[in-house]
Amino acid sequence: ELSQVSENAVCPSPGAMSQAPEKDAPQEEGEGGSRRSGWGLLVTAGVGGTLVALYAVATPFITPALRKVCLPFVPATAAQIQNVLKMLENRSGSLVDIGSGDGRIVIAAAKKGFQAVGYELNPWLVWYSRYRAWRDGVHQNTKFYISDLWKVSFSHYRNVVVFGVPQMMPQLEKKLEEELECNARIIACRFPFPCWIPDHTTGEGIDTVWAYDLKHSRACETKSLEITPETES
């Protein structure tokens, strides 16, 4: 239909020689338009694919920010990792990192002999953590799960590492106190718990790490008093 409109728009000429170039011109325009349309489709497809990929990558990072309690991903510094490992000296048993991010703490603990587990809401970070653990040769001593920390029970862990924010610490403090055994140690990075008194502290500024032995809390003493008469009987 476009070629017919183009021919009707050309003014008639008396000679055949003058008509030939006029008929050829619309064909050249049509070929050029097809090429431009093809490139346009390719560019559109490329831009669309890029936007979809960016959305898929960015959504897990943005979504936590829309929650009531925001737990953003901020990689642990080398000093923080060393401070955490210092608080784990002479400790044994299983370890969990709540909000494990890219797996740095879990992998470092696994290299020290711990059976270490990380819980992280962002699937991209979990997959990357699994790759890093495999690359560093500790994948057999590590596990990473995509899960919301509020939907997980930490009752069977003896060592807990937390990279939290102030808004979540009071609720998390209550959750851990209800779930953990008295021999558990909780290590908080960047922000301390609001009510617990730390047994050990190391580092400065953002690298400060607080360690809490749950056996020193009043809740554990109460549990022991309640359990002792039943045990004796």
TrEMBL record:
Keywords assigned by UniProt, alphabetized: Membrane, Methyltransferase, Mitochondrion, S-adenosyl-L-methionine, Transferase, Transmembrane, Transmembrane helix
Transmembrane segments: 39-58
Region span, Disordered: 1-37
A GO CC term attached to the entry: mitochondrial membrane
Membrane topology: Single-pass membrane protein
Organism: Calcarius ornatus (Chestnut-collared longspur)
Matching InterPro entries: FAM173A/B (IPR026170), SAM-dependent_MTases_sf (IPR029063)
Name under which the protein is recorded: ATP synthase subunit C lysine N-methyltransferase
Main location per the UniProt record: mitochondrion
Family: Belongs to the ANT/ATPSC lysine N-methyltransferase family.
One GO biological process term: methylation
GO MF assignments: protein-lysine N-methyltransferase activity
Keyword Methyltransferase set for record: yes
Cellular localisation: Mitochondrion membrane
Keyword Membrane included in the entry's annotation: yes
